[in-house]
Amino acid sequence: MSTFGIGMNAEAIDSGELKGKMYHIACKAWFTASCSLKPLSFKFEGDDGQIQTVSGITVRHSENKNYSGIPSKEYVCEAVIGGIRHEFKLVFYMEACKWVMILPNKA
After folding, report:
1. Rg of the chain over CA atoms, in angstroms?
2. pLDDT given at position 15
């Protein structure tokens, strides 16, 4: 324990709420030999009802998060979706073993 409690409970800091349009996705991921998780491609149902496949994902960085106390892994990514390059987040909820894509709200 440190003076004034600095550094205590640093692992359980809540990251707030996800902002943007959420899509539930089916994700193909790879677990490396060092047990790191890397998303490779995913499928989701677009607003038009069509199933879209996204591959060629570039992961800019990843971070462990807690959203409303739920442990998750967040990936800031970019890929071509519908012919347009998008920046988005992929979030893996570890306990539920579920993936979501978050597209930023349009300004």
Report:
1. 16
2. 59
DSSP three-state, residue 14: coil
- As a whole number of angstroms, the distance between CA 56 and CA 19 comes to 24
User: In what order do the strands lie in the sheet containing 70-81?
Assistant: 51-54, 37-45, 21-31, 98-103, 84-93, 70-81, 58-67
Q: Quote the CA–CA distance of 88 and 100 in Å, as a whole number.
A: 10
pTM of the complete model? 0.80
What average pLDDT is seen over the chain? Answer: 87
Annotate 57-69 with DSSP letters as a single string: -EEEEEEEEEETT
Q: What is the DSSP letter of 105?
A: P
Cα distance from N-terminal residue to C-terminal residue, the chain: 44
| Domain range summary for the chain, segments of one domain joined by + | 18-103
